[in-house]
Design a protein that fits this description.
The complex is a heterodimer of chains A (128) and B (133). Chain A has 128 residues and is mainly α. Chain A has a single domain, classed as 3 helical TM bundles of succinate and fumarate reductases (Up-down Bundle), CATH 1.20.1300. Chain A contains 5 helices and no strands. In chain A, helix 2 packs across helix 4 and helix 3 crosses helix 5. The termini of chain A are far apart. Chain B contains 4 helices and no strands. Chain B has a single domain, classed as 3 helical TM bundles of succinate and fumarate reductases (Up-down Bundle), CATH 1.20.1300. Chain B has 133 residues and is mainly α. The chains are: A mainly alpha (128), B mainly alpha (133). At the A-B interface, helix 2, helix 3, helix 4 and helix 5 of A face helix 1, helix 2, helix 3 and helix 4 of B.
Chain lengths: 128, 133
């Protein structure tokens, strides 16, 4: 006989109150990283290959609308995917109070990186 | 909490080496490395947003021999994590669990990630634009 409540059964979030949310988020962000990551790797390789890595050329490249939007998507997705992954690594190897502190700190760190990166792109793209 | 009497799984060394073991831990290792690589990506963008002096400093650091080696290492880590990540997505869909299949897909990941890295290096060396940079 199941001791689970009817509501708990319907919500399906289990004892960790998270259900499959983390698992799905990691997969969905992974799928998004495939085109974004390949685009970024080949774009940077092309910038270097063409020798257009001086300040003005790179600013021009970042500021173009398609590149700026793709960069913002890349930063947001990569920081999110990275936070989800580092979380699992910490949960596996760190224990006790240190675990809680490092879990919170890594989330903050990823949020700061995402905000700084997106702000940098916007500042370049909007030219101020 | 600690219960010494509980059964313990044997140490990793007792198992015969298989390609899948190395690839599995490499997925995690490259993932953690790429998390650190985020610092470099964001640093590069912030330096560019700050101005010509800070951008040129970062670019010169990355153009030095250690800088180039770090960039190539990140290119491979990214390619590997991406290819092996696709392998994981197939497993999530229930595909490729036969012994011969996951060994073959493992070697495919090794070859594909090396190939992508080689192509990236070739492009960066100016092969695509026909000029040696």
């Amino acid at each position: 006989m199941s001791r689970r409540t009817a509501l708990g059964h319907v919500l399906g979030l289990g004892s960790a109150k998270d259900g499959t949310g983390h698992w799905w988020a990691q997969r969905v962000s992974a799928v998004a990283m495939v085109p974004l990551g390949l685009w970024f790797l080949f774009s940077v390789a092309l910038l270097i290959g063409r020798g257009t890595v001086d300040y003005l050329s790179v600013i021009d490249w970042i500021a173009s609308p398609v590149n700026a939007v793709a960069l913002i998507l890349l930063i947001a997705t990569m920081c999110y995917h990275s936070a989800l992954g580092v979380q699992v690594v910490i949960e596996d190897y760190v224990h006790g109070g240190t675990k809680v502190v490092s879990l919170v700190l890594q989330k903050f760190a990823h949020a700061v990186l995402a905000a700084a990166g997106i702000f940098a792109v916007l500042r370049i793209a909007l030219g101020s | 909490m600690s219960n010494i009497d509980r059964p313990l799984s044997p140490h990793l060394q007792v198992y015969r080496w298989q390609i899948t073991m190395t690839l599995s831990i490499l997925h995690r290792a490259t993932g953690v490395a790429l998390a650190a690589g985020l610092l470099l990506l964001i640093g590069w963008l912030v330096a560019a947003a700050t101005g010509p002096e800070s951008y040129t400093q970062v670019r010169d650091l990355l153009s030095s021999l250690p800088g180039v080696l770090i960039l190539v290492a990140f290119a491979w880590a990214f390619s590997y994590h991406l290819c092996n990540g696709i392998r994981h997505l197939f497993w999530d869909a229930g595909i490729g669990f036969e012994k011969t299949q996951y060994r073959a897909s493992g070697w495919a990941v090794v070859i594909a990630s090396a190939a992508i890295t080689a192509i990236l290096v070739a492009i960066a060396m100016g092969v695509a634009s026909g000029s040696a940079a």
